[in-house]
Amino acid sequence: MTTRTLMAAFALATITLGTAACNTVEGAGEDLQSASREVKEEI
């Protein structure tokens, strides 16, 4: 592998993992909001 190919693969992996992490954090935030709404309705 050339250095250029290796750097491109590393960049692609970083972008992919970053996107997955954002989706996970966004999903967790939505879950917390949903739980908060349920608690407010019960009170």
What report would you give on this structure?
The protein is 93% helix and 0% strand. The chain is mainly α and 43 residues long. It is rod-shaped, with a radius of gyration of 19 Å. The protein starts with a helix and ends with a helix. The model has no long low-confidence stretch (mean pLDDT 79).
Brief sketch in words of this structure:
The chain is mostly helical and 43 residues long. Helix content is 93%, strand content 0%.
Residue share in β-strands: under 5%
* Chain-averaged pLDDT: 79
DSSP strand tally: 0
Helix/strand order, N-terminal first: H
Shape: rod-shaped
Low-confidence stretches: none
- The chain-level structural class is mainly alpha
Major sheet attributes? none
Task: Chart the SSEs and their pairings.
Layout: H1 3-42
Defining key terms:
mainly alpha; 1 helix; single chain; rod-shaped; 43 residues
